[in-house]
Amino acid sequence: MTTAVPTRSTKARAEFFEAAGRRLFALHIAPTGPVRGSAVYVPSFAEEMNRCRSHAAGQARALAAAGIHCMLIDLYGTGESDGDFVNVTWETWREDVAAAAAYVEQLCGHPPMLWGVRTGALLAAEAAVAMQQAEQRLLFWQPVLDGKVFLNQYLRLRIASQLVSDAERETTERIRARLNSGEVLEIAGYPLTQALADGLASSRISSVTLTPSAKIGWIEIVAAADQTLALPSRRQIDAWTAAGATVVAEAVACPMIWQLHERADAPELERATMRVVGACL
Q: What are residue 13's DSSP bridge partners?
């Protein structure tokens, strides 16, 4: 008896595309059937990008099976894209997101949802405003609300690495002073410059003014199923809602995927994402 081979619902294709003269890598995961929407995935900062990569690919396959063409990009100076991390700025990355959005819309004819994880959510929101999108559609995984707070937490990785050495202990203030003097400092394996640090530190979700027709899916990971979103998140959601935007939010109890060195399954995150996308995007 011949066993029927299941029909594939998605297809994958890798390519390089141009963004303001920069060559960037993209992985397309698209439906094999009709396309009813598109999405651009915006990764998080430094090693968080690598830790979330497989989860993003798995989610993109689920979205593509539902008819959404997904474009997963490596920002300039990261992954397979051209450039060196030491030469990037926050503004460069924001331009990358805008270029990817324009490119995927040209490919499939649908204005994309910008899907950002952690600091990628900040970039996605700022890019949506800079592009003056008529239809602002955003999907956030554990969005960073304040780039300065994130930067200070990131700088502490350098301080923590000094606890096992005889080197003089630094403070976050001392590290920022060295960056401001023009030094390039390695933190958790990545060279950090003043330009990138300043751009990140000046980025805040509360400064993003979306259109009244904006639709946002917001997913936050919590420790237990009975927990709700953090208070700062609820305040930002309330502010956008009061301005007319539609926000569909869920708190999901699953592993904090951006923190884990070893991959852990997070099916709850995938299911919540599909619910949020179906409800508002």
A: 28
Mean pLDDT, range 177-181, rounded to an integer? 93
Contact assessment for residue 113 and residue 72, using Cβ atoms and an 8 Å cutoff? no
**Beta carbons within 8 Å of 89's beta carbon, 6+ residues apart:** 195, 196, 199
The number of residues making up the chain comes to: 281
3-state secondary structure 110-169: CCEEEEEECHHHHHHHHHHHHCCCCCCEEEEECCCCEHHHHHHHHHHHHHHHHHHCCCCC
Cα separation, 116 vs 94, in Å, equals 12
Tens of pLDDT, residues 62-119: 999 999 999 999 999 999 999 999 999 999 999 999 999 999 999 999 999 999 999 9
Which among 193, 86, 70, 239 is positioned nearest to 139, based on CA atoms? 70
Quick one: fold of 10-145+208-280?
Rossmann fold (3.40.50)
Q: Which residues contact 136 (CB under 8 A, 6 or more apart)?
A: 128, 129, 210, 211, 213, 214, 215
**pLDDT grade for 3, boundaries at 50, 70 and 90:** low
Q: What is the DSSP letter of 204?
A: B
How far apart are the C-alpha atoms of 52 and 46, rounded to whole Å? 11
* 8 burial level (CB within 10 Å; 0-12, 13-18, 19+): exposed
Cα separations (Å) of 151 from 12, 27, 278?
34, 28, 33
Of 140, 155, 126, 188, give the one whose Cα is nearest residue 44: 140
Could you tell me the two tokens for 118? 């952690």
d(CA 76, CA 279): 33
Positive/negative CA dihedral, 58, 122, 112, 215:
positive
Domain locations in the chain as residue ranges: 10-145+208-280, 146-203
Torsions phi, psi for 197 (to 5 deg): -60, -45
